[in-house]
Amino acid sequence: MKALLITFVVVIAALLLLGAGGVARVLFPIGAILIGGLLLRKRPDLYMDALLWSWFLCAFLRRVMDYQAGWKEPSLVLIVPYLMAFVAPVLDFKQILSAPLKSTAAFVIAAMAICYGAIIGITQQSITTVVGALLQWGTPVAFAWWFTTAAPDMQAMVIRSIRRSFFWAILIMGVYGLYQYVVAPTWDVFWLEQLGGVADVTSMGTPEPYGLRVFSTMNSAGAFALVTAAGLLIVADSRHKLSPVVFSAGALALLLTLGRSGWMATVFGLILLATIAPKRVTSTIAVPLLFAMLFGSALAVGPAAEVVNDRISSFTHPSDDASGNDRTRGASSAMKMVSEHPQGYGLGVGVDLISNDGSFSLHDDGIAEGFLTLGLVGGFLYFGSLGWLLIRMLQRQGGGAILTLPAIISLAFLSQIPLGSSNLGVPGFFFWMFAAWAVHEKLPKDDRIDQSLDNKVVAKEGFRLDTSPSTV
């Protein structure tokens, strides 16, 4: 099965190198989904590798294919990760339904809320629009639901794949992000130019060297920033000798996204991780921090100085932050609309429902989007399921509280929902995946580190360290 996967990757890469993006655009979605199904049954670890890399790279592949073969919207390439993620819950449907409700209640409740939103959406939106929104809302929940019902050995393989894939993805996406910022590759510029005809892309920066907000291999700077935040926390928890190098590449790319949600999620997560494993975090990020100080000095006089410094200053002078003020006004208007339309607008509601001048998108406030989409009843059910997950990921059998790496990442994502929909779409898939891992983690003893010192440090606070750093 590994040979089949490698062959498929080589074929797609060869087609793109030969300029046959049109052929690759047809072959890739079909082959990826079929191979995904085969891998799940024969090599679940490779299935997880393939699935994660599809989330990391599909937007990049779409841009290259469109650059070679012409703009195509909508693109089937972009829904490949969603369909590959759905392969697991579809093939193991009976296993999911037979699982104890106690372990899957949060996902059942979230699914009920999403189904309600779909019903409302069908009465107000087109079927294709509702289906597209259903993928963004439902795929993360469905995959996490499957993960919680998987056998312990399956979960262990999946977790190792997550660690391995994220480690190398942060290196590759980080390096490409820096290249993207300095060079502004033609396929990325072409994509922005074409996208400008159907959407507002001013928030992405200017399509020229040193002008872009880095989005690397993904579809937006915001999504890339949050995914990178998760990856940096995994790298900080790793023992690999290249961890400082990988962390540096990812952190610099994250800085150039100008994504404050990603910045805050990273800092929040590192603080929590340092609390329970200070030695490991310090050894990983010491060199990158020194490098960041040198880079920051260069940045003060470099081409990115003004935009980065303005973004950072928004934390100390929030009243001067036009973007933040627009979000505040938009959130206030959204809550007023919720009271006027308590049934909600359903899945597929336009992101410009509040403002059509680009000043506020529903994606700018996950709470507002949740209640406007799902209504009061559906919204309370959905966010109630997140609260249930939060309690479950911090409370485990044996009493006391437990703070794990996936729990920290999940908390970092949750903390950003008021600033963006980190529970939906690309970042949403990773949030729900890490939440499911945090709730049902069952790792082999040999995949854990020596926790004796750190456990003594946190025992007084009522937490028990239970992380599983990878040597990758």
From TrEMBL:
Ranges for domain O-antigen ligase-related: 247-347
Protein keywords: Ligase, Membrane, Transmembrane, Transmembrane helix
Pfam families per UniProt: Wzy_C
Superkingdom of source: Bacteria
UniProt-recorded name of the protein: O-Antigen ligase
Organism: Terriglobus roseus
GO cellular-component term (any): membrane
Subcellular location: Membrane
Molecular function as annotated in GO: ligase activity
Keyword DNA repair on entry: no
Membrane topology: Multi-pass membrane protein
Residues annotated as transmembrane: 46-64, 76-97, 103-122, 129-147, 167-191, 212-235, 247-273, 285-305, 371-391, 398-417
